[in-house]
Amino acid sequence: MVNTLGPQYSPLPPKFYPWIFISCDFLSLVLQAAGGATAATAKGNRALSSDGGHVMLAGIVWQVFTLMIFGGLCGAYFRRVYINRDNLTSSATTVFNSTRFRLFVSAVAVAFTTIFVRCVFRIAELADGWKSPIMQNEVEFIVFDGVMCLIAVLVLTVFCQGQYFPQMQEQNSVDRRDIVRHSSSVSGSDLEAATEKQVVVPK
Questions:
Q1: pLDDT in tens, 84-105
Q2: What pLDDT band is residue 198 in, cutting at 50, 70 and 90?
Q3: CA geometry: angle at 179 spanning 175 and 185, to 5°?
Q4: Is there a contact between 20 and 73 (Cβ–Cβ < 8 Å)?
Q5: Please, what's the b/e burial string for 48-64 (b: 16 or more CB within 10 A of its CB; e: otherwise)?
Q6: What are phi and psi of 94, to 5 degrees?
Q7: CA–CA dist 115, 145 (Å, integer)
Q8: Would you call 89 helix, strand, or coil by DSSP?
Q9: How would you label 163-179 residue by residue, b for 16+ Cβ within 10 Å and e otherwise?
Q10: Does residue 145 surpass a pLDDT of 90?
């Protein structure tokens, strides 16, 4: 999306987004898994079970923090794009003004919001320990956990990028072709170099 509309408006170089935020999300999942495993194997040890809950809570807090940073960067980017909408390239302007693209961005925003709400709910759920009133409220759990995930999955399935933002697929295809072309050129160069080494010019 950043490459399509204009990387010059992004607070970060486009290649840094997956490296930074996938790494942060992976750390969050590791903390939550470690905390859950610790609590599950406590076997009546309340202190160990409580420690596991705290580790899980730390993982979720970290996830919410990184989501806030990511949301802030996205908001800053789209604000810059909107301010400079008259200076976009013709292809970027076509994408920016298309209804399909705006539906896709709206779907991503809805999915982001529902996942954020779900994570905040889980913080409140774990903040008072395993026997907190929020954790024992089944209706709240269904609404703020299951329903939030369901909405995120539905909107991203209905408004998938293949139909509503095909430029993403085209960019990935270009990247794959560049990789293949680069690999082929490297292989050809290596073959030529090896051939030259095998040619002995008699004196």
A1: 999 999 989 999 999 999 999 9
A2: very low
A3: 140
A4: no
A5: ebeebbbbbbbbbbbbb
A6: -60, -45
A7: 9
A8: coil
A9: ebbebeeeeeeeeeeee
A10: yes
